[in-house]
User: Fold these one by one.
Assistant:
Number 1:
Amino acid sequence: MSTAALSQTLKSITILKLKELEKQRKAYELRKAETLRYANLPDVDQRQRVYHLLLAVEQLDPAPASDIDLCNVRRWLDQSNFDTSVPDTMVDEFEKQLRSQLDIQTRRLDLANLYSQLLTEWLNPINVDESIAVEDDSSLDGSFELVDKDRLKQLVEKFEDVVFSPLDTDEVAIYNYLAALFEGDEPKALLERLRSQVKLQCDFWLHRKLPFDENTIQWCLKGLLGNDLLSDEKKAILQDFLTDEVARSEICDVLNMKYRDIKNWTWDTESGMPVQPRRQLNGKYRIMMDEDVLQAIFLHCIGMSWSSWTKKTLSDTFLRKSIWKHKMDIPRKVRDRRRYYLGEYEGRTQHGIEEIRHTIYKKDFFLSQLPSSVYEGAGGYDDDEEELSDDNTEERKSPKEIKQQLLRQIASEMHLRLAMEGEFAVVQSDFQWFGTSISHTTISAVLRFIGVSDEWIAFFKKFLEAPLNMAPVSDNSESSSARIRKRGVPMAHALEKFFGELVLFFMDFSVNQRAEMLLYRFHDDLWLCGQPEKCAKAWNVMEEFSAVMGLEFNQKKTGSVYISKDSTGGTKKRRFTDALPEGPVSVGLLMLHSSGEWMIDQAQVDAHVAQLQKQLSQCESILSWVQTWNSCIGRFFSHTFGEPAHCFGMSHVDRILETYRKMQETLFQGSNVTTHLKTIMKERFRIDDIPDAFIYLPEQLGGLGLLNPFISPFLFRDTVTPIPDARLRKAITQSRTDYNKAKRIFGFLSKQERHRRLRQLYPGEFDVANIADTELDRFFSYEEFVQYDESINPDLAYAYKDLMTLPVKKDIIMSRRITEAVDTIAVIQPELNQATLSSEIKWILTFYERELFERCGGLSIIEKNLLPLGILKILRKRRVAWQMVL
């Protein structure tokens, strides 16, 4: 949001508040100077001097320090006039405290004045030329990094080369490939049931009379405001619609008329939809259409309806125990054998690792890009922020949280496989230019396969074949005429997610059916992890699927790691590495080494730190510098290093701390961020005596609110497990103990007791006399005992779940003085109470306790009524746009 967009009324109030603040500061300093001039006269009696100082503090200081009781000081002074037992040293201490209190109020007003200057600087910035950052052009999904306009022109031309060149895939081959996934009576019946549901839904949507009403318009407007489809100017129009009931009613009428004639819908433009690169907050450039507002609402409604219905239908249809392959159910024959050998000892729970695994998969990864309801909106794939939600929708993880879940999943699976089998593999990939280049015939083939009607396929075909008019990227470029898009999906539409997720769902299903694995997928980011043999088989399935669908893996983001406890390697390792794709494996700035350690990629960190340094140097004011720092440190580095978790151990926390230390050394040439900011403020505003606490305290307490990246890791450091797989190994050791115990118990059974167990399991089916005693007497092997441990072993399940758990924060212990001060502040500022204060703020208050009380008179550096919090809140909504793809 630009400064020009700020409320002029709020701006005027802020200016008045700043003027009043300066007036108070000057008045105080004048009165203080008069007080000290009298108090410093050599012939003034000490007690008279203290009385004079006390009166000045009472009159001038609106918030005296909590450790000075002015009423008691006056009474004790009166006592000293008569009681000679009151020592002079006490009176000296009174004078020292009162002079200090006068200085504290000076410091508070000086800092308030500094804050006003910082805010004025932010409101009236000096123009700084923005250079365009150097970025990677490897992705046509919008991840274009730029050197100059000529480079941008080349990238737009590359986009044009792709989207205007058709890729005709073989629809018959696609149909045959998908049909082969449904061989057998039950799968065929499931497919027919799905097609029947799709047909009914197609008819229902096609013949709806009045799909747009007040409720529909409301969620459409909120959804479009939450994604990147429309420009800021058109989003402002949507905001007006939200507050204008008459406008919404008119929109309903127009869109219902349009919907009734949906069979003849077109993009309704002769010159083509204007298309140009648009920069996102994360620094990426996406090639976006500049759509009409009503058209966007119309398509959003259709896209969200299809997306939410499809997610529910596919989840209910395919995530059944009889269809989706897993190990949660133990075969009847195996259960009977276990009951015979283990008897009552076989009381292990069915809630094992496999159930945990599938619960997480269903909740966080299965069709994760599709909304569960129309109220969720349709944010971008790379969103850093939470998607808009409605009170009626279930809580969903943000994209950032899902990526952290993925990291923990891979790390935990690695510990499990190495502990149980001694080897592990992970595969990483994504598709080259997926959204930009996906074949239209592939989309049509998949739609037709699940039973979408010809009328709707015709509508989707017109949507995909949008007439595009590429806007010139330089002053010398010539305007182009409209051309029909032949590949890819219009960016940021709800229908974009619908098409992408529907096509890739069948890759998920293929991997599960043919390799009996879970493909962890976040849009087109693809992950396999587990037993090397299964990973190799699953990768082969993915390659076959891609070839049929006309998709191409992005080789720059494709790789695998094979990890084995057998240091000698050998033919097994070579077999797996030959079957898996070559290349490194990384998530964010974490790289997985063949040793099994997750290491921070220092080369990438250095590149991003260099870019951060450049971006900080371009900040027009100190407050914008702080906001840029907080955004980069808080939104990016805090999660690309991987959040602390038990599966990473304490060593990972120490690596994060060491990386932050190196970053500060690089950014501030061996100094630190505190000294750097204080130096800048001294140079610009000629203020020298700035407390460190002023830099880090939250704005509500009069600070700049700078994030300290070291605090959060230290909050976890004492609670994260030092050795990640210790509990897993203990559970495996316990399995051996349980096996030996069960074997001993079985050995004590008499022949008759064993026969009785057998008859209970197989009543009337077997003649015990015909079964050899050696077959009845031989206890089953340990390998058979633990074969289904991932399904039924509770100790193993607890250890696995613990690995993926985030450690709890260990709060700093606050002193009584701080807790009492917080309680006092909470009376005026209820949001600042002990229950709602973050662990990081508690750490800061405790760390700077002495400085705050001795130099600032308490926790609040500046009085709330002196802070222009209203305009600060608005300015803080300016979200920092990265100049480098992160």
Number 2:
Amino acid sequence: MRVLLLLLSASLSATAVAQSVPAPIDAVDPMIGTGGEGHTFPGATAPFGMVQLSPDTDATCALRACYGHAAGYRYDDPTIQGFSHTHFSGAGHSDLGDLLVMPQAGETVRMDPGDAKVPGSGYRSRFDHATERAKPGYYAVKLTDSGIAAELTAGTRVGVHRYAFPKGRAAHLLIDLRSSLYDYPGKILWSGLHLRPDGTLTGFRETRGWAPGRKLFFAMRFSTPLTGHAFVDRDTDVPYKGFQGPGRGSDAVAEKLGKALEARLDFGTLAAPLEVKVALSGVDEDGAVANLAAEPGGFDAIRTATTAAWTAALGRVEIDAPAPMRTSVYTALYHSLLAPSVWSDADGRYRGPDDQVHAAKGFTVRSTFSLWDTFRAEHPLLTLVQPAATTNDVVNSLIESRRNSPDGILPVWQFAGRETWTMIGYHAVPVITDAYLKGFRGFDADAALDAMVASASYAPYGGLGDYIARGYVPIDKEPEAASKTVEYAYDDWTIARMAGAMGRKDVADRFAKRAGNWRNSFDAKSGWLRARLSSGAFRTPFDPTAINYGSDYTEGNAWQYSWFVPQDQAGLFRLLGGDAKAIAKLDAMFDYDTSKLDYSHAEDIAGLIGQYIHGNEPSHHVAYLYSYAGAPWRTQERLAQIVASQYKPTPDGLSGNDDLGQMSAWLVFTALGFYPVAPGSNEYVIGRPFVARAAITLPDGKRFTVVADGLSPANRYLTGVRLNGKPLTRTYVGDDEIRSGGELRFTMGAVPDKIWGSERAVRPFSMTR
């Protein structure tokens, strides 16, 4: 009897502990990154959703002053200007903020946002963070000036607003098609509003901003009929004579075309909250109407469905860690699942980079490809924590985009199907290679390889013609030449890897040779990656600390880019003079005294630890490089330093732009204890874990578990590593080993093990080991 009582007591105790741990969805805090330099948004969206329905605190800033508002919302702003339907998560640049909606109460409807410093001067409203609630798929806030309680939720292609108006006051909506994130001069080319006989409001807008000629269509329905409306064009210029939109003609109760449209919608005095359901489409207004029908139900139904989707997506990774770390990691996973976002309509139609409407068969078209950032960890993470369909959709979307591209190449930085030509490299290539080598086969591999080779052979792009002819990009012909040379060489290596796996020896041999081109811009005498002139000489004067846009490097300097040889770190270390000198240079990077340097002119340079810049991507693999020099214990020290200083569960908890999930994916991988230094190698370099236990449900349903025995702030070193019960002597784990399922168990201690991982034979992959 006593044994039974003890067992019952233990069972109840375990149940109480389990119940006290929040579910993954409840551990997420969408406010993380909304302050500081994170540039994330707190609003409602579904996993990879087309709609990101979120508050904009300032959509009227001048172009050069908008950096801090790249996501529309900034935590320290005092007012909300309205709620718009499209946002980037953590981009360093911006656009979007489409279809701004602002509820108003009373007799007067204000048509301009007004001054944030002057309450009541416009339709914007003050708010208090104490009234905000943000969860995956849901956002709520009380608008102080009007007393309106606002709630937002979103499905894949729809967003739903719910507004509770003060009792006895007339309800209105103001729709401002003029409003947009980043105030590009003349951004709104044309727009339209059409009120259909059934009360559905449809419309469109064509913009020229970061992406030129972008078209977006919408359909909007209301839970109660309109009692009145007005469509107003605030523009006095000569109308744009290009794209005119579909028009509704005699089918429309009312319509208006123009450059600066607003709609005032009246609903009278309401006894219940007003629900507003909005669907988007990149195709046409009828496509938006069809997308409305494809996700039936009102606010509660959409919220329930999206909550279930987030519960399933986040639940694929089970995390046991102290509450602050658990919140940080689950929020990082959440941010990693926002893009690439859905772009095709429910019927498969989508607008391509040629501005024509196409139909996808058998997959969902994705867009929002921040590839210079996300090839590193974001896309490799998706191959582990998402169903296979997600990665296959991504690769199919890249191939499809190339088919419809006027230039015949893969996307560089694309959103809403439009190319921005932002950043460098052809980094769709490693995304495809990484997927193929990991066994994903839901796409045409031959078409993929053709697209990869075409992208790597497109001479007009970024000095690529000179790179092909000379083996490097000359700085007197192309800016950021040093960075472009090494990034092209890495991409070339991934082409060689995929071609080799496909039996295409001719292609493999050609690009394997090009993969060594990084040496052509590396100055072995000084130990730095440097830009070369057409004459072959290195450009002078040379300062490894200098950071200037359009100079030798992309968003960085020689300190960061001299380490970018993911495919051949061993070859790089030999040029540096061996392991000891490589370690000394790594230490010098982290320990550099930057107190006398001023990088304030460079927006993306944030999160400095010496010359290591965690707030920008070129540094992201560097802490793991000690393992390539036989000193993984130094990697373990640096990772503890980075995680402690660069991440925290607060609005300013990201040290730099999340960049569509890359900053967050870095934390997810690092918390698990390994990281993909060279996507395409099928290896993950072991670091050290930051969670006591994690279990990943892999795409095929198998489970891979990570356990950290003895983990504590004092125990930051690995004293033992076992894979499926057997000692692991090497400092990497294979992708195939993870996909087979099993357990990776770490033993943590306060004293480093300087022997483990020191032998050359146990180090991670290098092209010239």
